[in-house]
Each structure stands twice: as structure tokens, then as C-alpha cells.
Amino acid sequence: MLNPHFDNRFVRDLPGDPDTSPGVRQVHGAAYSRVAPTPVAQPRLLAYSADMARRLGFSEADVASEDFARVFGGNALLPGMQPFAANYGGHQFGQWAGQLGDGRAITLGEMINADGERWELQLKGAGPTPYSRSADGRAVLRSSIREFLCSEAMHHLGVPTTRALSLVGTGEWIERDMFYDGHPQMEPGAVVCRVAPSFIRFGNFELPASRNDAELLRQLADFCIRRDFPELRGVGRGQALYAEWFARVCERTAVLMAHWIRVGFVHGVMNTDNMSILGLTIDYGPYGWVDNFDPGWTPNTTDRYQRRYRFGQQPQVAYWNLGRLAGSLSLLFDDTEPLQAGLRRFVSTYLDADRENTARKLGLAESREEDTALMQHLQDLLTEGEIDMTLFFRGLADVDVHSPTLAPMEDAFYDPARREAVEPALREWLERYAARVVQQDLPAAQRRERMNAANPRYVLRNYLAQQAIDRATEGDIAGVTELLEVMRHPYDDQPGRDAYARRRPDWARERAGCSMLSCSS
Ligand code: AMP
Ligand code: MG
Predict the structure, then answer these.
(1) Atom 11 (ligand 1) nearest CA
(2) 100 alpha carbon to ligand 2 midpoint, in Å?
(3) 498 catalytic, yes or no?
(4) Residue 105: phi, psi to the nearest 5?
(5) Of 95, 327, 356, 382, which is least packed with CB atoms within 10 Å of its CB?
(6) Which residues are recorded as binding ATP (predicted)?
């Protein structure tokens, strides 16, 4: 039992830091530093993803064993694990920030499951590493619950993401100044084990490039292509291969952005160290879900003035981030045209994916040029009228296009005055929409099915997560378990679970954790 197979290619194939001391330092010429998790007082399994455990081949008995909580709380290693912290840099809020690295994440190893899939197991909050800078290497329960739940919710929504295996309470308290206002408080600590085929970020390439270390940059690129992009096997070599690889990164990132816009997810901190080379959603911090549709909204209080990472801006930011990656990779190229071509691939892929999502969200059998304008107009009205995105699109599937009314979207309005102001225009839009749907030859049931597969009924609304966090902080983890269960089937109507599909209640409008989040985690 608990005897998985590991094949640790990252530490085997890439140069590591010869210094194995724990001290904080600048690490040159190395992709990682070996470091073990720091044991915690009382590791206790609070929640786990049965889905992910099964995928990895852990039985229920494995999960229930004391060893499981010990290993995934950072108190023990399994044979074959070779823990390390990765070395990377990044652009934070538009500025080059130098070396960052895994300050509180520690990879345990690359596990190979029974199907031959490679899954990197990584603890977040496992204690200090050479990259912890001035921080403690730990994570609080509230942010760990948020990462745990959202990873799994996103996966079940069909959005590329890192996964979560487990949430372990540490039995320790740590100090955080949640509002950065000089009033730190003690909060319970936790460790999440997150899982992905690769945790390589744009920043892994940016750091050696910033130091003009073309050798390490090339090693990383070759490694990443070999391990993480098996589909590129046989696709040329040298610069042609690097170019195609970069283009694939652009494609994956574009597809991810279209998904975020489709489901109403705002990452909150799209720094280049938080951009996965595989186009996965990674590093769940002060993220949020759009309640009333608003392209200008960001949950991140640290970003409230500039709003760089606001909902509607995310595709543009991703493009900018890819530009930084391209700049780093240019060290491997004689000229930049192949990289420009990759960036163009981002634009075309995003436009295609967004057009396809528009058609799916509106229940159109095929997408036409003019549908983009139809969607844009709707989005303007949703913003103006302060209308709930999730409830509106879900309700739209129930509109009878032969006599369209707003009745199926009745619950989506937050403010009666704003509703009144926007209602005439919204009715007009609905008429146009109905006319567009009637033109096509798609039976009503099929249209509804198509829409309900693209417009979730349940998303991890910020206030829902916060309620589960409040309960967990009181010692009752059931709210987390229930929420995880609901989020496993976001597109199904789940009888008896209407409470999870309601619009944000008034009390949550301005409450910390519900509409505003800081980076403190
Ligand atoms: P983030 O904004 O969460 O992506 O974090 C940016 C950088 O800060 C990363 O290098 C993290 O590893 C590091 N970091 C964040 N929180 C902590 C912490 N509590 N201890 C050590 N490093 C941290
Ligand atoms: Mg990060």
C-alpha cells in the first residue's frame, strides 16, 4: 500500500543547485534546489478529491491511512520521492521581478500511474525553501481550501487546470496580515497536494534568459518539449521545433483564456510566474468568479486601482505574457519572425475559440460572423443592467424563441433600478436573438442541451467558498466536502441543490473573501 512508482525526470535530466542548505539565496545555473518539506505538528486529512485519488491509483484504504496524511502534510516521504523547489523568475504586474521560485511549493516526485500517465505531485505550504525570500513557506487554511476546491471545480467545468489531491490541516497556526493594514492575525495552516503533468511556468524560461544563460535555457526548452509536449515528436528540430513548440504554448494559452471568459473566471494574478507552459490554470490565489457580468471586475484588492488583471482583460494580458516568453526564447533564435508567428497563432486561436464558445453559449448550431456582435451587445447589456452571468446564460436556454420573455432569467437581476433601465434594450436583444435562433434548423431540445453543456449551472461563487471556509475554520469541514461534490457536476441540474446556484446575496457584496481578496495567503 502507498507504494506508487516515481520517475523523476525533472531532477534527473536538469541541472540542480549543488548547494543543499536551506538558506534563502540566488541560485544560478540550476533549474531547481533539493529541499525536503518541513514536518508539521499534526497532519490531518481534511478533504481529498476521490476523483484524483482514483486517477492516481490510491485506494480508499490508502487515503484513510495515517501515512497518507503524513506524506501529503509533509511529514514523511515515500520511497522514490525526490523533493525539490523549482527555480524561476517572472514579470509581476508588468515589472520584471527577478528570481522568485517555489517559495512554499515543494514537488515530491513525478508519479507514473497504472495507465502510464505522469503526474507531478507538489505540496503547497510545505515550509521554507531557498526561494522563500522573507516569507514562511506556509499557507493558511482559507487559501488552501480555495485552491483545493477551485482546482477540482475547474477540471469538472472542462477548463484546463492543475488538480488537487488532498487538503491536510497542519495543526499549526501562522500569522497573516490579510488586509495588509498592520493587523496580523493567527490563522490555521494547511497543505494542499496539487497535481499536474508539469508545473513549468513561463518564468522558468524567463529567469535563465534574464541572466543570459542560454545553455540552461536551451536545456529547459529541450526538456520541456521532450517531457511535456510528446505531440511534437517528429516535428523537426532546432529552431523549427522551438518555433512550433512556442506556437503550441500560444494555442494552449489562447484556449485557456477563452474558457475563462466562457465560465466567468478571473485569475487575479496573471504574473508570468503564474502562467503554465501547458496552458493550465495554475496558482489559485485571489481569484474570483464573476457574479454580475462586468469585464472591469477584479477580485484582487492589490490590483484595485490599475485593474491590470480584470476579467475582460485576461486574453490581452496572456498575449503580453506570451510576448515576455517570446522575448526570453529569442535567445534560441536567429531572428524573431518564428516567434511573431507564434503570437499570431494566439490571436487566431483565441478568436476561433471565442467564436465557438459564443455559438455554444447562445445555442447556435454554427457560428457566423455577426454572432460576435450579438454576444458583444448582450455582454454590454449584462454589464449595464448588473445581471448575473451564470444565471442569465443558463436561463437563456429555457427561452421559448417563438414567444421570448425574460421570465427564465428572472433571478439574474441584482438591482431593480438598473434592471428597469436596461429592460427595453434587453427585450429588443431577446427578439433579435430569438429571430437568429429560429433561422437555424436546430430542435429546441438540442439547442438547450448544447447551451447547458457550455453554460454551467454551478460555479464556485466567491461567497460559497467563503461560507465553506467559515465553517471549516470552526472545525466543520462538511461545507468543503459538499461544495466539492456539487462542483463535480457543474452542468447538471442537481435536485435539492438550488442553494448552490443562487446569485450572490446582498451581504456578500462587499465582504472580504466574497468580492474582495488580497494576495495574503
Ligand atoms: P504568488 O503571487 O502566490 O504567485 O507568489 C509569488 C512568489 O512568492 C512565488 O515565488 C511564491 O513561491 C512566493 N510566496 C508566496 N507566498 C509565500 C510564502 N508564504 N512563503 C514563501 N514564499 C511565498
Ligand atoms: Mg505563484
Answers:
(1) 103
(2) 9
(3) no
(4) -105, 135
(5) 95
(6) 101, 103-104, 124, 136-137, 194, 201, 283
Q: pLDDT tens across 371-390, in order?
A: 999 999 999 999 999 999 99
CB distance 74 to 191 below 8 Å:
yes
Which of 415, 430, 452 is the last residue before a domain boundary? 452
Q: Tell me whether residue 408 is in a domain.
A: yes
Count, in order, helices (H) and strands (E) of the chain. Answer: 16, 13
What is the average pLDDT across 362-379? 96
Question: Which atom of ligand 1 is found nearest the CA of 138?
Answer: 19
Residue reference for cell 534568459 = 209
* Distance (Å) from CA 132 to ligand 1 centroid: 7
The number of folded domains in the chain is 2
Residue 446 lies in a domain: yes
Reported as a single tens digit per residue, the pLDDT across 312-349 is 999 999 999 999 999 999 999 999 999 999 999 999 99
Residue 408 C-alpha cell reads as: 427564465
Among the listed residues 17, 228, 273, 371, the single catalytic one is 273
CA angle 199/201/203 to nearest 5° reads 145
Domain hosting residue 95, numbered range: 5-201
- Give the model confidence (pLDDT) of 445-502 as tens digits: 999 999 999 999 999 999 999 999 999 999 999 999 999 999 999 999 999 999 999 9
The answer to whether residue 356 sits within a structural domain is no
